[in-house]
């Protein structure tokens, strides 16, 4: 059962905590475009270029994340992705020019790719042979529910205190997720082999 999994598998429980922080931390990226439009008055063509940077980095980084995850484990892919989104949040938080957003969008695209490639694969690494469905279900819910709430919370915070407050909270949540993943989660493949 799910409560039993969470009670027994501390490594997986720590992963879910880190993943929840990262999912909630997505709130900032929902407002990158709105903020850059209001703060810097960029053109539609510039917005299209931001999207090109986002999609280009997402597509190109897929070629890195897949082989890296297969070779050394998906935890490393998620750690690197989390570091990239922390940097993306920081760039936006400290931005003084619309130029800064090209790098912010590119870093976010690479992060999103890392989550897409390694986020499900690592669940299979955690799961025992007969428990894959439970692990996939719990892992998907823990990633999905906070991701649903994130833009709602971020939007309300932006209304009350401005976009930079949303970016600050996003940065702090993603930093917490990165640190929890880095310090609190063991690579599940290596952990299983060492048991």
Compose a concise summary of this entry:
With 195 residues, the chain is mainly α.
Looking at this protein, list some descriptive labels:
single chain; 195 residues; mainly alpha; Growth Hormone, Chain: A; 85% helix; globular
Task: Write up this protein.
- The chain is an all-alpha fold.
- The chain has a single domain, classed as Growth Hormone, Chain: A, CATH 1.20.1250.20.
- The protein contains nine helices and no strands.
- The chain has helices at 2-8, 10-24, 32-40, 44-72, 74-93, 100-126, 132-161, 163-184, 188-194.
- The radius of gyration is 17 Å and the shape is globular.
Distance between the termini: 22 Å
Number of strands: 0
User: Could you state the order of secondary-structure elements as H and E?
Assistant: HHHHHHHHH
Beta-strand percentage? under 5%
**Discrete helix count:** 9
Question: Looking at the structure, what is the overall shape?
Answer: globular
Please indicate the count of domains: 1
Q: Give the class from helix and strand content and strand pairing.
A: mainly alpha
Q: Specify the CATH class.
A: Mainly Alpha
CATH superfamily, called what? MFS general substrate transporter like domains
């Amino acid at each position: 059962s799910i409560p039993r999994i969470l009670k027994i598998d501390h490594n997986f429980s720590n992963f879910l905590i880190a993943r929840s922080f990262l999912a909630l931390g997505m709130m900032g990226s929902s407002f990158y475009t709105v903020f850059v439009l209001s703060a810097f008055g960029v053109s539609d063509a510039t917005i299209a270029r931001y999207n090109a940077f986002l999609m280009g980095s997402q597509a190109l980084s897929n070629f890195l994340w897949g082989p890296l995850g297969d070779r050394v484990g998906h935890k490393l892919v998620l750690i690197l992705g989390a570091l990239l989104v922390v940097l993306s949040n920081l760039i936006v938080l400290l931005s003084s020019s619309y130029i800064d957003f090209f790098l912010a969008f590119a870093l976010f695209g690479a992060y999103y790719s890392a989550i897409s490639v390694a986020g499900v694969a690592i669940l299979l690494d955690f799961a025992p042979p007969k428990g894959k469905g439970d692990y996939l279900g719990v892992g998907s819910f823990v990633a999905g529910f906070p991701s649903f709430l994130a833009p709602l919370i971020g939007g309300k915070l932006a209304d009350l205190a401005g976009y930079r407050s949303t970016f600050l909270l996003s940065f702090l949540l993603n930093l917490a997720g990165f640190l929890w993943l880095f310090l609190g989660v063991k690579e599940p493949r290596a952990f299983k082999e060492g048991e």
